[in-house]
Specification:
By secondary structure, the protein is α/β, with parallel strands linked by helices. Helices cover 59% and strands 15% of the residues. It is built from seven helices and seven strands. The strands form two sheets. A five-stranded parallel β-sheet has the order 3-2-4-6-7, sandwiched between helices. A two-stranded parallel ribbon has the order 1-5. Helix 1 links the parallel strand 2 and strand 3. Helix 2 crosses helix 3 and helix 3 runs parallel beside helix 4.
Amino acid sequence: MTSSRIPAHSERPLRIVVVNTIVDHAAQSDSTLAAQAQRGNALRIGLLEAGYDIIASLPADLYLPERIGQLQPDLIIIDAESDARDVLEHIVIATRDERRPIVLFTEDGATASIDAAMAAGVSAYIVAGLQAERVAPVLNVALSRFRQEEKLRAELDDTRHKLQERKVIERAKGLLMTHHGLTEEQAYQRLRTMAMNKKLKLAEIAQRILDVEDLLG
């Protein structure tokens, strides 16, 4: 199961990594690089004015997952002039086991690009909106959305876990009823007694019974 790492409001400032999607500067036109520089300055100013801690600015290359793993940021910002699919693939790998909010600033408003980004786990997809004064509000919305999604994800995982436990308990009760001629209530009470004697949860003792049954064939 994945986890997330967002500090509470009263804790330290968020540690932010900015990912730049232009790697080969020699292959880019002067106008593209100038636009990139302008966007980068606006982003940095907006982050600094909001009091965020920029711990690194990284290129979108094959080493990105490893660098993110080493830096352990709380939030990832992608500054993408256009198509960001490659960098999203790297970031998905980097955040697979430890989820983080991802904010994508881009000039690409194509529906397919937006759908791909949201499916990859992007918390906020901002088209043509990288102005310094907009950075803090965008991050606040992204963080709020991410926390809400993580809450729903945790509730769903908990529901699935409880459902699985109930299935295990029901199967164990069925075995006790079959092998010992017990009623459903008697089988349940026997499970409870065994769990208390072993100081285990009901689902744990039920799973042990199923494991023994599997071993005995």
